[in-house]
């Protein structure tokens, strides 16, 4: 150790890999066609992984994948695993059952995924973190029903993602539990970005003479876009329409009006996911492979009682 300290020896990672040792590096892969820098939620997820991995003595190698149908992009990700540049990986934004991710899991690499649901698949190296969308929707619909709303619409998320489907299914169940009718014309397709909320809400306003008294948005970014469309049309939130988001975005409390939302502890969720991936890499006994983040309702200014 004295020689190592005296000469400031730094281990060669390539040599360590050849010797069968790990790199102490996690791959962080974001699947996103748009601007990652402008998406605050994605940046929160990224920062949570980097901070927690660093606290555990791990490096993070970050990739942005624009299109999973692009063979070169996918090959670059797979090479990071097969050439042992990373010991394991975390994927954000993947569709449910993404083929190349399934191949990595089948080959035994420790892989953490956010927002996935594959019943019956329980491989030890498949680490999954989700949010409790169904419970969150019960909170949102229940709160609106408590305020007297019976005409409730929704702007859905990306239906290729588990959370998009799960939120909508949760919405249907919650509406049924409260004896409320789901009107298809108030169910609008969307995704998880602000512009999706803006376009979906604007289209609703253009096409429908009778509007819901409240809208539930797939996430807070979608809610921001939806409220912008309402305000441009001369409508006021919550006086003319109540709006609920999902996530508790960093800007939600400072938005005008302050956004009522279903909060999810993304920092804790990503820290747990990172911990579980590292546990699999290090072969720690008893490492868990599933984490579900519980939701809670944050009441602010974007909803009002009616009737």
Automatic annotation (TrEMBL):
InterPro entries: LacI/GalR-like_sensor (IPR046335), Peripla_BP_I (IPR028082)
Domain Transcriptional regulator LacI/GalR-like sensor: 141-303
Top-rank lineage group of the source organism: Bacteria
Alphabetically ordered keywords of this record: DNA-binding, Transcription, Transcription regulation
Record's keyword annotation contains Transcription: yes
GO molecular function terms listed in the Swiss-Prot or TrEMBL record: DNA-binding transcription factor activity; transcription cis-regulatory region binding
Transcription regulation listed as a keyword: yes
Family matches, as Pfam families: Peripla_BP_3
Protein name, per record: LacI family transcriptional regulator
Source organism: Cohnella rhizosphaerae
């Amino acid at each position: 150790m004295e020689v190592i300290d005296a000469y400031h020896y730094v281990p060669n990672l390539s040599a360590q890999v050849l010797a069968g040792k790990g790199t102490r590096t996690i791959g962080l892969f974001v699947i996103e066609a748009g601007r990652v820098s402008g998406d605050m939620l994605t940046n929160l997820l990224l920062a949570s992984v980097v901070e927690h991995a660093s606290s555990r003595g791990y490096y993070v190698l970050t990739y942005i994948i624009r299109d999973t149908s692009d063979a070169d992009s996918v090959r670059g990700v797979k090479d990071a695993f097969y050439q042992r540049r990373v010991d394991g990986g975390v994927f954000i934004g993947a569709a449910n059952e993404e083929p190349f991710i399934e191949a990595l899991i089948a080959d035994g690499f420790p892989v953490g995924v956010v927002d996935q649901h594959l019943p019956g698949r329980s491989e030890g190296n498949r680490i999954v973190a989700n949010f409790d969308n169904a419970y969150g929707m019960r909170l949102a619909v229940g709160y609106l029903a408590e305020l007297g709303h019976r005409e409730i619409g929704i702007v859905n998320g990306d239906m290729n993602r588990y959370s998009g489907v799960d939120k909508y299914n949760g919405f249907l169940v919650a509406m049924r539990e409260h004896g409320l009718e789901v009107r298809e014309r108030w169910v609008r397709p969307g995704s998880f970005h602000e512009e999706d909320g803006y376009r979906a809400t604007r289209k609703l306003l253009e096409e429908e003479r009778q509007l819901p008294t409240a809208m539930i948005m797939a996430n807070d970014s979608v809610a921001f876009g939806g409220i912008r469309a309402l305000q441009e049309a001369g409508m006021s939130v919550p006086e003319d329409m109540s709006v609920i988001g999902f996530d508790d975005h960093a800007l939600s409390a400072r938005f005008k009006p302050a956004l009522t939302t279903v909060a999810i502890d993304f920092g804790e969720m990503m820290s747990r996911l990172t911990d579980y991936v590292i546990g699999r890499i290090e072969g720690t006994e008893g490492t868990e492979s599933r984490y579900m983040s519980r939701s809670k309702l944050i009441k602010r200014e974007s909803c009002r009682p009616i009737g």
